From TrEMBL, chain A:
One protein family per Pfam: BPD_transp_2
CDD domains the UniProt entry points to: TM_PBP1_transp_TpRbsC_like (cd06580)
Any one GO CC term of the record: plasma membrane
Keywords, comma-separated and alphabetical: Cell membrane, Membrane, Transmembrane, Transmembrane helix
InterPro entries reported in the protein's UniProt record: ABC_transp_permease
Main subcellular location of this protein, as a coarse class: membrane
Membrane topology category: Multi-pass membrane protein
Name assigned to this protein: Nucleoside ABC transporter membrane protein
Entry's Gene Ontology molecular function annotations: transmembrane transporter activity
UniProtKB/TrEMBL annotation, chain B:
Cellular localisation: Cell membrane
Organism superkingdom: Bacteria
Location of the ABC transporter domain: 5-236, 237-494
Alphabetized InterPro entries for the sequence: AAA+_ATPase, ABC_carbohydrate_import_ATPase, ABC_transporter-like_ATP-bd, ABC_transporter-like_CS, P-loop_NTPase
One GO MF term attached to the UniProt entry: ATP hydrolysis activity
Gene3D superfamilies hit by this protein: P-loop containing nucleotide triphosphate hydrolases
Gene Ontology CC, one term: plasma membrane
Protein known as: Nucleoside ABC transporter ATP-binding protein
Keyword annotations: ATP-binding, Cell membrane, Membrane, Nucleotide-binding, Repeat, Sugar transport, Translocase, Transport
Membrane topology label: Peripheral membrane protein
Length: 295, 503
């Protein structure tokens, strides 16, 4: 009834938007910034990407536009939190609401329009799936093996010490926020351009929140993000298959399953953290704290 | 021999504070040069200017004969200045090698760096494993990381900001051996401290700062610790009249008090306080003052039997119950800790005086009573404010301080603990606050005054002890205690023997 290979291929597709968004947020958080606006940046990318792909007929340009839209939205967040020192949690929430509202308004003309078809990449998979998979080792290597990654982690770990050593805390953080925006935008565009192939208001359906949860679940490790995205994608695909197969479980319960699975894993990991040997966990030391250099 | 570093007429003003004024001194190659001064004397600002964290307003600096005006710490490092910080400079979650790489301009590949760390740490007798996480290191090992970070850059001038404050005596000895070795190689070392012993035994010259100005540059070996202390704190000595105050029965007993806090942990603190007595506790900030106040006020619970008031064990009693028992406290931080800035003065009285003054009845706030009590505090302590409805944050620092102290003093405490009662308060208001404390003691309350202002402590207290590295020294009667003896107690000379050794 269910072919494992077919399910795995579908899983890769379902995991990709979250993988992009979560990798971006991971980098942002490793720099010490908590941006809860992932959902808003994703939906912004979904619409901008869809509109650009529709206008040019090129999905590639669509993804580029989505990345730019994500960066633009993230820069609103950066300006408010890094220069005006606003509260990161409140600003992130506002960015999500802003993104959802803005796209609902500007998305009207695109409702019912069909997206241009994308060319398949190697092994018949969407090229963005490959890009997402490549980003996992790239982000890991960049954070753990490169000099800019070391500086980024230093800024996220202890911004006062990084400042005392002469590193530009604010500039590093803005760059990390921009990377997070670009990744979230592309993740959102994958939903509109490559999965659903049309624009619907609020179509990201909480994927941004799942991405945020996965970053914690992954303990700020890119490989953990991959595992989390696959878990969520896997349960999503499985429940769709079960629905199609007409299993006697209410549809609402099945639709709930991926979110439920994410929450359960999150709770299990937190519990292990609390009672296990690791204790403090691996959250960046300055996560969510505003930085203000006294001169 | 040409100087490695020279400062000429450096000046720096922060809003409201002249941190440095006309500071000139020089450091020769191979010299260990001490910067000596009390907290707030301007040492930190001075070295921040040298390291490029702060830009001087006046004067100029030269390094190796050329103008030294670093735009940021990286420029300073490139010019050959390295600095070992007292705080905020290591990244706990990163490894030793990563921490060291962050302090270098062009770090080699990680394997090569690890090898160099291993070699250098061997040659200076500072063993370190480059792959270990800093979070798992002891204070002494952490400092080794910082020192190695500096040594890998072969600095011309090495600045050390109170490096021994976190070290055990054995670790300090290793540090001095390393510094000697470095100095022998020609590196100039600028050594910041207020510990007279170590400066006298290890430094070649000492520049003494007081109130942001250079008082003198001397050979510390040619002076007694007493003379250095006098230069550091200023010899002005007040004649204090403490007549007529008779200590009564013991009210507060603290024994074996220890905390395991994030900041400076208290270690085996013991003291007794009699009714009508003022006990002064001096010491440089960050040596456990806040922890002591928190432990006494009840914000930190301690082991049973460590704090007893009138024979009743309060060690595990929360703050509100301690207030009911008569143990009141006024913390140093006026806004946020002692008072809520957004609340009115009347509402702020509820925070600590709510139950003692009967301002809360049956779980409801008696607003008119709170108003009346706030008005009483305002009247008794001459708080300049439109009225009890004014937000606490709208008051000037001095006025709010008078209000905070007044709130506790009018609470008729058995024991009052105050931290920095006149910090940032103008002279007139400070005199009022001190007078109020003296009056309270005359009425039979026991008072503990924690302060960095030695004049204040001498003026107020009957007995004096010093808090140093979380340890409280044995109290000495203030009568007959000279300011240089106090300087020695604060400088960490254990016991008073050093002062009696003829120079």
């Amino acid at each position: 009834m269910i072919d494992p290979i077919a399910v795995f291929i579908l899983l890769l597709g379902a995991a990709t938007p979250i993988l992009f968004a979560a990798l971006g947020e991971l980098v942002t958080e490793r720099a010490g910034v908590l941006n809860l606006g992932v959902e808003g940046m994703m939906i912004g990318g979904a619409l901008a990407g869809f509109a650009a792909a529709h206008a040019t007929g090129s999905p590639a340009l669509g993804f580029a536009a989505a990345a730019i839209a994500g960066v633009v939205l993230s820069m609103i967040f950066a300006a408010l939190t890094q220069f005006l020192l606003s509260n990161q949690v409140a600003t992130g929430l506002a960015l999500t609401l802003f993104g959802l509202g803005l796209t609902a308004m500007f998305g009207k003309p695109y409702e019912g329009v069909k997206a241009p078809t994308m060319m398949a990449g190697p092994l018949g998979l969407n090229p963005m799936i490959w890009l997402g998979l490549l980003m996992v080792p790239a982000v890991w290597w960049g954070l753990n093996r490169s000099r800019p990654g070391l500086i980024l982690r230093a800024v996220g770990e202890n911004h006062d010490a990084a400042h005392a050593l002469g590193y530009p805390v604010r500039a590093v953080r803005i760059a990390a926020i921009a990377f997070g925006g670009a990744m979230a935008g592309m993740g959102g565009a994958y939903i509109s351009i490559a999965t659903v192939l049309q624009w619907t208001e609020g179509m990201t359906a909480g994927a941004g929140w799942i991405a945020l949860a996965i970053v914690v679940f992954a303990q700020w490790n890119p490989w953990g993000v991959l595992a989390g995205a696959w878990l969520f994608g896997g349960v999503t695909v499985l429940q769709l298959r079960l629905q199609a197969a007409g299993v006697a479980v209410p549809v609402q319960l099945l639709t709930m399953a991926p979110y439920l699975a994410t929450i359960i894993v999150l709770v299990l990991i937190s519990a292990r953290q609390k009672y296990g040997r690791s204790g403090g966990g691996s959250a960046p030391g300055s996560l969510g704290k505003p930085f203000h250099a006294l001169r | 021999m040409t100087d490695v570093f020279r400062a000429e007429s450096l000046g720096k003003t922060y809003p409201g504070v002249r941190a440095n004024e006309d500071v000139s001194f020089s450091v020769a190659p191979g010299e260990i040069h001490a910067l000596l001064g009390e907290n707030g004397a301007g040492k930190s600002t001075l070295v921040k200017m040298i390291y490029g964290l702060v830009k001087p307003d006046d004067g100029h600096m030269t390094l190796m004969g050329s103008v030294h005006a670093p735009a940021d710490p990286r420029a300073a490092r490139a010019a050959g200045v390295a600095m070992v910080f007292q705080h905020f400079s290591l990244f706990d979650a990163l490894t030793v090698a990563e921490n060291i790489a962050l302090g270098m301009e062009n770090p080699p590949k990680s394997r090569e760096l690890s090898q160099r760390i291993a070699e250098l740490s061997q040659s200076y007798g500072l063993p370190l494993n480059p792959a270990r996480r800093v979070a798992s290191l002891s204070a002494g090992e952490r400092q080794r990381v910082e020192i190695l970070r500096c040594l890998l850059q072969s600095p011309r001038l090495l600045i050390m900001d109170e490096p021994t404050s976190v070290l055990t005596p054995q670790e300090a000895e290793i540090l001095f051996a390393t510094l000697r070795q470095l100095a022998a190689g020609g590196t100039a070392i600028l050594y910041i401290s207020h510990k007279l012993d170590e400066i006298r035994s290890h430094c070649d010259r000492a520049t003494i700062l007081r109130h942001g100005r250079v008082v003198n540059t001397v050979d510390p070996r040619a002076h007694t610790a007493r003379e250095l202390a006098a230069m550091m704190v200023g010899a002005e000595m007040r004649v204090i009249d403490r007549s007529g105050r008779k200590p009564g029965a013991e009210v507060l007993r603290v024994a074996g008090l220890a905390t395991a806090s994030d900041g400076m942990a208290l270690k085996d603190v013991a003291l007794t306080l009699r009714a009508g007595e003022i006990l002064g506790i001096g010491g440089v900030a960050g040596n456990g003052q806040e922890e002591l106040l928190s432990a006494l006020s009840g914000e930190i619970a301690t082991r049973p039997g460590t704090i007893t008031l009138d024979g009743v064990d309060l060690s595990r009693t929360p703050p509100e119950a301690r207030r009911k028992a008569g143990l009141l406290a006024a913390p140093e931080d006026r806004l946020g800790h002692a008072a809520v800035p957004e609340f009115s003065l009347a509402e702020n009285t509820l925070l600590t005086a709510g139950s003692r003054q009967g301002l809360i009845r049956g779980g409801l706030i008696d607003h008119s009573a709170a108003q009346a009590f706030a008005q009483a505090v305002i009247a008794a302590f001459d708080v300049r404010t439109p009225g009890p409805q004014t937000a606490a944050g709208a008051l000037s620092g001095g006025n709010l301080q008078k209000f905070v102290i007044g709130r506790e003093v009018l609470g008729k405490p058995r024991v009052l603990v105050v931290n920095q009662p006149t910090w940032g308060v103008d002279a007139g208001a400070a005199a009022q606050v001190r007078q109020a404390l003296l009056d309270l003691a005359a009425k039979g309350a026991g008072i503990i005054v924690i302060s960095q202002d030695l004049d204040e402590l001498l003026e107020l207290s009957d007995r004096f002890c010093a808090l140093n590295d979380g340890r409280l020294s044995a109290p000495r009667p203030t009568e007959g205690l000279s300011i240089d003896e106090i300087g020695l107690m604060l400088g960490g000379a254990h016991g008073m023997e050093v002062a009696h050794v003829p120079a």
